[in-house]
Amino acid sequence: MTFENPWFVFLLSSVVGLFVLETVSVLLNLKQLGQALPEELREVFSEEDFAKSQAYSRESARHDLISSGVRLAVFLAFWLAGGFGWVQQVVSGWSPSPILQGLAGITLLHGASTLLGLPFDWYDTFKIEAKYGFNKTTPGVFLADLVKGLVLGGVIGLPVLALLLWLFGTFPGAWLWAWLAVTVLVLALQYLAPRYLMPIFNKFTPLEDGSLKTAIHALSEKCAFPVKELFVIDGSRRSTKGNAFFAGFGNNKRIALYDTLIEKHPQPELLAVLAHEIGHYKRGHIVQRLIVAVLQLAVLFLLMGTVLGNAGLHAAFGLQAPVLWLGLVFFTILFEPAQTVLGILSGLWSRKHEYEADAYAAGATGGAADMIAALKRLARDTLSNPTPHPLTVFLHYSHPPMVQRLAALRKIG
């Protein structure tokens, strides 16, 4: 763990460099908040709304920056003090099994990370989100969600982790089998998550008969998008922000609308939002993203298989000899710069898809007016930042900035 080790130099440089890049992005975004409200949004944003959105963006950004700084400081202190070697010593005394040691070690590290982030999540939910009128979560629901998430992560994640440790500890070409196994899980979750996992956190109620249900079925028939089930989600139990999504394949598609979305938008706007989601399916975005995700997994596991037993990588973290489960942890840290680049490319691709889905919605609903109205209302109700800095958009935005989306829709007419 010295500067003579090239792995150590690269890892330290990348960890600190990514934090510096993020800090620069946040500071530029904060400076950008001083701009005037775009003319496009003046009809829905009052001066009070605009000032509130800027204050919300400013407070959220500062909170995220402090949270990231604390996490970085704790991680560096843990790393440079030989924390990873200490955890290995602890878990090696609990069991002679490398697999059980790995499960215990990763559970300890994940638990510590969760505890470190808990005060920041709590403050964000009950101070910032509550201050600006978004939070509806009670402390009981917050803690219940946390426990459910940890249990669900353990039920799904620990068996997968055990399988990966066994494969990489047993077979020379383990990356291929690991990729196939995780791919099967990813595809299975596309079906299982909306039916069995999401209802653990939210209540799904069938949409009542009425004009909205009739209009949605008419829209789905017009778009040749067979819908088997329509649900309303109790999103208002946690937040005032709205959302909508669909899931499923073939003739088993289901549409889910947050009750907050239904409450705040008139029917034409709701249909435009749903047409946008249908547009993602009709333009092949869902399948494309799934294929790319599976291919990325293949590259991920191929690279992982080449470095898991690397002595230099382990020495960069203070270990005298490679330890399989720690190799998995170290690889996730090593892969962060590549993950950042992939995230940027994914954002560029996703923003292109959003334009295409907006265009589809305009065509499916007979014009762009309803989609424009829906986007403006969403921007106001969520206090979104109408003037983000280009670097922040480049690094993080999966959707185009609102003004650009509205301009593209107006060109459609």
Topology, pairings included?
Blueprint: H1 6-32, H2 47-80, H3 83-92, H4 98-131, H5 139-170, H6 174-197, E1 204-206, H7 211-222, E2 227-233, E3 244-247, E4 253-258, H8 259-264, H9 267-282, H10 285-307, H11 311-315, H12 324-334, H13 336-364, H14 369-381, H15 390-396, H16 402-412
Parallel strand pairs: 2-4
Antiparallel strand pairs: 1-2, 3-4
Helix pairs in contact: 1-2, 1-15, 2-4, 3-4, 4-5, 4-12, 5-6, 6-10, 7-9, 9-13, 9-14, 13-16, 14-16
Gross morphology is globular
Average residue pLDDT: 92
Strand content: under 5%
| Contiguous runs where pLDDT drops below 50 for at least 5 residues | none
Largest sheet: 4 strands, mixed
Strand order of the largest sheet: 1-2-4-3
Total number of helical segments?
16
Order of helices and strands: HHHHHHEHEEEHHHHHHHHH
Helix content: over 70%
Say how many strands there are.
Answer: 4
Span between N and C termini? 61 Å
Structural class: mainly alpha
- Using only C-alpha atoms, the radius of gyration works out to 24 Å
